[in-house]
Amino acid sequence: MRNPEDQRHLLAQAVLHVRSQRATSRRTLADVMRLSPTTAGQYVDQLIASGHLNENGLERGPMGRPKRSLTTNADVGWFAGIEFNAERIQGVRVDFSGAKTDSRIISLPEAVTPKAVIAEISKLITTLAKNATGPLLGIGVGVPGIVDPIAGIARDYAFIEGWKDVPLAQQLHDKHDVTVTLDNNLRAIALAERWFGGAAELADYVVLGPRSGFGIAIVIGGRIVTGTEHAAGEIGRWPWPDGGELHDALSSPAVWRRLAGKTKRASLPADLHSALATFADQRDEARAAIIADYARVLGSLHLLLDTHSYFLHGPLTALGDAFCTDIVTTIQTIAPSLQNKPPRILRSQLGDDAGALGAASLAMETWVP
């Protein structure tokens, strides 16, 4: 006999399997959760009674009796997903079935304070609540820099002054009275690729995040790698040959400055994505040097991780598919051992709200009835 807390988590797992369509009937739910048909049926009956699942229609398999089809009830409530950096906050509203129903973005002023960021996040959640169906069920936040998701504390982010050991989960919980789940924003994006992007069937993949800095999120065996100090993936801190760090050369601002022939202190354009798009067809020494630098980094990563796919996110997606293709070609040139097994580098098909969608996925995955 399971205790009530275990029962709640098993019910939540059942919802996740139905939402992801890994389970579409009582029988497939029993199979995927390794439960007896009777036990799985009891969970389904309980979730139908609580309004979280619907059972309707007939799903006829190639053999055997027709089965009722299970779906989640989109109207039972919603999740807020928030992702931010030093320049802007992105928010989405996702219904209980995992469909995006609203998306918002607000810009942040220069030299914004941690207190102001938290206030703006709270305002954005309140805005998302307008015209929502059902109650707010949970908040997920993709936080830049180093995050302690267990304690709910944002530990460090270099691009917002004073952003140290911020108890973000508790502060948002106090304001909105729901469970708040934090993680690094790139790890949130890794969840977005699982739920909304190209990684639905993948157990091993990496998210590349050359944005204001440069980090990665690593998924191995279906689990996101966090590290002992929750700092796995901070490759932007790798020492770089010129005496700086990797993000000084390969972040999106650094790449734009290199392509545009600007100094390292040159002001950035208001829309970095659009500014980079103007260089999509450029073929010169500056681009070749950037490609070579990326090839060394990603070739080394691939020798270490041997993962299935790398999903490029951020403003550099504006450089087009050729940017990814040329990196792979160069890797095969500089790393002979990878000539016949090069990495698969893809521009993500998710939009600018990928981090917020991933944050909403955090909330969906941690929700319990």
Q: What is the number of domains?
A: 3
Sheet of most strands:
5 strands, mixed
Q: Which architecture of the largest domain does the CATH hierarchy give at level 2?
A: 2-Layer Sandwich
Briefly note the structural class of the backbone.
alpha/beta
Helix and strand element order: HHHEEEEEHEEEEHEHEEEHHHHEHEH
Mean pLDDT: 92
Strand line-up in the sheet with most strands? 5-4-3-6-10
Number of strands: 15
- Provide the β-strand percentage band: 15-25%
Brief sketch in words of this structure:
The chain has 369 residues and is α/β, with parallel strands linked by helices.
Describe this structure in words.
- The model has no long low-confidence stretch (mean pLDDT 92).
- With 369 residues, this protein is α/β, with parallel strands linked by helices.
- It has helices at residues 4-19, 26-33, 37-49, 114-129, 168-176, 185-195, 247-250, 252-260, 272-277, 285-305, 321-334, 354-366; strands spanning 53-59, 67-72, 78-84, 88-95, 100-107, 136-143, 146-148, 153-156, 164-166, 180-184, 205-210, 214-220, 223-224, 309-312, 345-347.
- Helix 1 (4-19) crosses helix 3 (37-49) and helix 2 (26-33) packs across helix 3.
- A hairpin with a 3-residue loop joins strand 11 (205-210) and strand 12 (214-220).
- Strands 5-4-3-6-10 form a five-stranded mixed beta sheet. A five-stranded mixed beta sheet has the order 13-12-11-14-15.
- The radius of gyration is 22 Å and the shape is globular.
- It has three domains: 4-72, Arc Repressor Mutant, subunit A (Orthogonal Bundle); 76-192 and 354-366, ATPase, nucleotide binding domain (Nucleotidyltransferase, domain 5, 2-Layer Sandwich); 201-347, Nucleotidyltransferase, domain 5.
